[in-house]
Automatic annotation (TrEMBL):
Gene source species: Dioscorea zingiberensis
Annotated Gene Ontology cellular component terms: clathrin adaptor complex; clathrin-coated vesicle membrane
Stored Gene3D superfamilies: 3.30.450.60, Mu homology domain, subdomain B
Protein name as catalogued: MHD domain-containing protein
One of the GO biological process terms: intracellular protein transport
Length: 427
């Protein structure tokens, strides 16, 4: 961050100061009034830019419920860092007060000032992890207790993990989860497709372990002069948890980190390559009369036979005034869901390379309005999960845990692909 903020203000919906913390002594409470006046001049605060500049002072703010969180700075600050810090402040307050609003601030002034003192020092953001803060700032319904010893994370560079963690059994669980987003038009053409992936970890490790993770990343393998046994992949738009040493990754593509305790997302990524629909759905509609319609649906799995999709759910839109729905399937079960104006087809197990059929009949009112509005047809939506399978072909080559005590940790890796926004249009 290029510079530090001068003060942090918490304002109510009318711009009145609820709490403010002066960090550098170069602004006053008048700044809050000037900020809100400037905000009102520009119109609706919710649609306003999150950064306001006036007379040598930069104001950065976010709104949550009926509270504005705003910083004032006379120095050149990294606005993105400060706005991220304000969102972290919201998360911490919600951890302590259940919900952040004007009333909860008024009821907890002492706790609020304690938290603001710990989360920012001389205008620079410090540690903002609620788990760490709650170790030494403890609240209950009536009072706050502060321990004499601050957490070890204050003096460490590892603000997301405290020392002294102990487990009888040291384990690491890593789930590689990919969500497939697809939109197909009525002509069968793929309009949009991408894959969003996440490496979700749950760590139950003692001490301060050092973890190293290796993927079949093409850049990493080429840097090491190696060739992958399977397929090397190119990942786009990679984002890491703050625990990952970015300099190390940029240098040799090694993912090295000291993990937080419990659950967190180690890494997210995106693949913008064209994705073949994993489950393809075709629909034929036959109108036998003005009041009776029959639909025939084919669902085909377009992945290899060794994989199996589970909990498949295909939601087929039907007219809102449909009645007497009767459905037959070659696999699974189908039921009319009038609250969603849809026929829901559920298949518990759908192996690769298979095709299943559904045939349904339903009745419509024989009398229609003279000026009937054409009904907007919703798309077919598909949900599924495919364990032990990823679209990208990502593979965890190794997951090592090193701790000075020398204990052996058990790593568990699991892969799963699921439907994200997966829709096929009928018209």
């Amino acid at each position: 961050m290029a510079g530090a903020v001068s003060a942090l203000f918490l304002l109510d919906i009318k711009g009145r100061v609820l709490v403010w913390r002066d960090y550098r002594g170069d602004v006053s409470a008048v700044q809050a009034e000037r900020f809100f006046t400037k905000l009102i001049e520009k119109g609706d605060p919710e649609s306003h830019d999150p950064v306001v500049y006036d007379n040598g002072v930069s104001y950065m703010f976010v709104q949550h419920s009926n509270v504005f969180l705003m910083t004032a700075a006379r120095r050149n600050c990294n606005a993105a860092s400060i706005l991220l810090f304000l969102h972290r402040v919201i998360d911490v307050f919600k951890h302590y007060f259940e919900e952040l609003e004007e009333e909860s601030l008024r009821d907890n002034f002492v706790v609020v000032y304690e938290l603001l003192d710990e989360m920012m020092d001389f205008g620079y953001p410090q540690y903002t992890e609620a788990k760490i803060l709650s170790e030494f700032i403890k609240t209950d319904a009536y009072r706050m207790e502060v321990t004499q010893r601050p957490p070890m994370a204050v003096t460490n560079a590892v603000s997301w993990r405290s020392e002294g963690i102990r487990y009888k059994k040291n384990e690491v669980f890593l789930d590689v989860v990919e969500s497939v987003n697809i939109l197909v038009n009525s002509n069968g053409q793929i309009v949009r497709s991408d894959v969003v992936g996440a490496l979700k970890m749950r760590t139950y490790l003692s001490g301060m372990p050092e973890c190293k993770l290796g993927l079949n990343d093409r850049v990493l393998l080429e840097a090491q002069g190696r060739t992958a046994k399977g397929k090397a992949i190119d990942l786009d738009d990679i984002k890491f948890h703050q625990c990952v040493r970015l300099a190390r990754f940029e240098n040799d593509r090694t993912i090295s980190f000291i993990p937080p305790d419990g659950s967190f997302d180690l890494m997210t990524y995106r693949l913008n390559t064209q994705v073949k629909p994993l489950i393809w759905v075709e629909v034929q509609v036959e109108k036998h009369s003005r009041s009776r319609i029959e639909i025939m649906v084919k669902a085909r799995s377009q992945f290899k036979e060794r994989s199996t999709a589970t909990n498949v759910q295909i939601e087929l839109p039907v007219p809102s005034d449909a009645t007497n729905t009767n459905a037959r399937t070659s696999m699974g079960s189908a039921a009319y869901a009038p609250e969603n104006d849809a026929l829901v087809w559920k298949i518990k197990s759908f192996p690769g390379g298979k095709e299943y059929m559904l045939r349904a009949e339903f009745s419509l009112p024989s009398i229609t309005a003279e000026e009937a509005v054409p009904e907007r047809k919703a798309p077919i939506s598909v949900k599924f999960e495919i364990p032990y399978f990823t679209v990208s072909g990502i593979q965890v080559r190794y997951l090592k845990v090193i701790e000075k005590s020398g204990y052996q940790a058990l790593p568990w890796v699991r892969y799963i692909t699921m439907a994200g926004e997966y829709e096929l249009r009928l018209i």
